[in-house]
Design goal:
Layout (H helix, E strand, L loop, with lengths): L1 H14 L7 H8 L3 H22 L4 E16 L5 H9 L7 E17 L1 H68 L5 H36 L24 H19 L4 E14 L6 E14 L5 H68 L5 H36 L3 H4 L2
Antiparallel strand pairs: 1-2, 2-3, 3-4
C-alpha cells in the first residue's frame, strides 16, 4: 500500500502539465489503476489459498459445552473396579453417576501424517505461481496496449500535419487557378476540382478525429489520464526471443491439476492423526444427590485406513479429464503463438526495410510535386495531373506513418509473447 501511495504521489505533479507526460508516467499510472488492482486481488486470493492449504497441517482446537439426560443413571467418567467397591460399601460417598450431566471441555486434533495435505499444499503453491505469472503477463498486455495506442495517436497526428501541408499547398495553387479562370486560360471546372480536393481533406480530418478520440480513450481506460497529444516514445531496446512466456500460466495450472490428481489418489493412503480431549463434568450423584465435579482427559493416535470410497475414484477421473483438457488447450495455444511469433518476426523485418524505402520515396515525391507545381503554373500540365502528385505524396506519407505505428504494435506483441520487459524497450 505504501509503495502505491509513493507511486501515486510521484506522478500527481505530472498530471497538471500535459507536456510532462511520458511513457513512464503512463506505466506508473497503470499500476495504480483499478485495472491493475484487480490482478492484485486475484494474486492475493491465490496467496491465501496457498496459506490455507498449509494451515491444514496445524492443530484444530475446539471448546465445547454439553448437557446429557438419560432415563437411567450413567457414568460421568470411567471408574476402576477397586474404586467402585469402596463407593458401594460407603453410601456417603457420592458416586459419579447421574441422569442429568453437564459437561464442558476442550478437544484437539492434529495430522501427524496425511500425505494428501502436503500434496494439496504443493498444488496451492503452483496455482499461486500461475496467478503470479499471469498477473505479469496481463501487465505486459496492458502496457502493450498503451504503447500501441500512443503509436496510433502519433500516426494520426503525423497524418494530420501532412493534411495541413497538403491543404496549404492546394490553397496556394487555388489562387493560381482563380487567376487562370479569370483570364480565361482554364475552364471553371478546374477551380471546382481543386475546391473538391480541399473539401476532401476536411472529410478526412473528421475520420482522423474519430480515430484520435478512440486512441486517447484506450489510454485513459488503462491509466486514468486523458492525453491532449501523443507522448514522445523512443525505442531503447528490442524484443528477445526464447521461451513462450505467455504460455507459462497455463503450464503451471496443468502442473497444479496433476498434483490435484495425485492428492485425490493419496487420500486412499493410511493417515495418522493425533487427537486429545479434556472434559469437566458436573452432576448430582444418583445415590445421595451430592454434587459431583469430575475431570477426565485422553490423548491418542488414530490410524485411518480407507478401504473403499467410490467418490474418490470419480474425483480422480474428473481431475485426469481436466488435465487432458488443459493439456490440449496448451498444445493449441503453443501452435498458435509459435505461428504468430514467426509471422510477426517476418513482418517486423519487412516493415523495417519498407520504412527506409518510404522515407526515400517521400523525398522523391516531394521533388516531383515541386516540379509539377512549376509545370502547372506554366500551363504544361492539367489540374488533374497536378492533383495526382498531391495525392501520391499524401498517400506515401500516410503509408510511412501507418507502418511506423504497425512496427510499434508488432514489437509490443512479440514482447508480450516472449515476456520481455516493455519498460526497458520503450522510454
Amino acid at each position: 500500500m505504501i509503495k502505491k501511495i509513493l507511486i501515486l504521489l510521484s506522478i500527481l505533479p505530472m498530471f497538471s502539465v500535459a507536456q510532462q507526460n511520458s511513457m513512464q508516467v503512463l506505466f506508473d499510472s497503470l499500476k495504480v489503476n483499478p485495472q491493475y488492482k484487480s490482478n492484485e486481488i486475484i494474486l492475493e486470493k491465490a496467496l491465501l489459498n496457498k496459506s490455507l492449504a498449509s494451515s491444514m497441517l496445524f492443530p484444530k482446537i475446539d471448546a465445547f459445552g454439553k448437557y446429557d439426560y438419560a432415563n437411567a443413571p450413567v457414568g460421568m467418567i470411567p471408574i476402576a473396579p477397586n474404586e467402585m467397591i469402596g463407593m458401594v460399601q460407603d453410601p456417603s460417598i457420592a458416586q459419579p453417576f447421574s441422569q442429568n450431566i453437564f459437561r464442558m471441555g476442550v478437544g484437539f486434533s492434529m495430522p501427524i501424517f496425511v500425505k494428501s495435505i502436503f500434496t494439496m499444499a504443493e498444488k496451492a503453491k503452483m496455482m499461486y505461481q500461475s496467478a503470479e505469472i499471469k498477473a505479469d503477463i496481463d501487465l505486459l498486455k496492458n502496457e502493450a496496449i498503451i504503447v500501441s495506442s500512443n503509436a496510433n495517436l502519433t500516426y494520426i497526428e503525423s497524418l494530420d500535419k501532412a493534411l495541413d501541408k497538403k491543404s496549404k499547398s492546394l490553397k496556394t495553387v487555388k489562387e493560381i487557378v482563380e487567376i487562370k479562370v479569370k483570364n480565361g486560360r482554364v475552364p471553371e471546372s478546374a477551380l471546382l476540382k481543386i475546391k473538391n480536393s480541399i473539401n476532401n481533406i476536411d472529410l478526412m480530418r473528421a475520420q482522423i478525429e474519430m480515430n484520435r478520440t478512440k486512441a486517447i480513450s484506450s489510454i485513459q481506460t488503462l491509466t486514468g489520464l486523458k492525453l491532449d497529444s501523443a507522448v514522445t516514445m523512443v525505442q531503447t531496446n528490442t524484443y528477445t526471443s526464447g521461451e513462450l512466456k505467455v504460455l507459462e500460466p497455463m503450464q503451471k495450472k496443468i502442473e497444479a491439476t496433476k498434483l490435484g490428481v495425485r492428492a485425490e489418489k493419496e487420500k486412499l493412503y493410511p493417515s495418522l492423526v493425533l487427537n486429545g480431549n479434556y472434559s469437566h463434568s458436573y452432576a448430582n450423584s444418583y445415590n445421595n444427590a451430592t454434587g459431583v465435579n469430575t475431570d477426565f482427559a485422553t490423548v491418542g493416535v488414530t490410524l485411518k485406513i480407507p478401504l473403499y470410497e467410490r467418490d474418490l475414484y470419480k474425483k480422480m477421473k474428473l481431475e485426469k479429464i481436466n488435465v487432458a483438457e488443459q493439456q490440449n488447450e496448451l498444445d493449441r495455444m503453443r501452435m498458435e503463438f509459435t505461428a504468430q511469433a514467426s509471422q510477426l518476426e517476418n513482418s517486423l523485418e519487412i516493415i523495417i526495410k519498407s520504412e527506409e524505402l518510404y522515407k526515400q520515396s517521400i523525398l522523391d515525391k516531394e521533388e516531383l510535386l515541386n516540379i509539377a507545381k512549376v509545370g502547372y503554373k506554366s500551363d504544361r500540365m492539367s489540374i488533374e495531373d497536378y492533383l495526382k502528385y498531391e495525392d501520391d505524396l499524401l498517400l506515401e506519407k500516410s503509408n510511412l506513418y501507418k507502418i511506423q505505428a504497425q512496427k510499434w504494435a508488432i514489437l509490443m506483441k512479440l514482447a508480450v509473447i516472449y515476456g520481455n520487459n516493455i519498460e526497458e524497450i520503450v522510454k
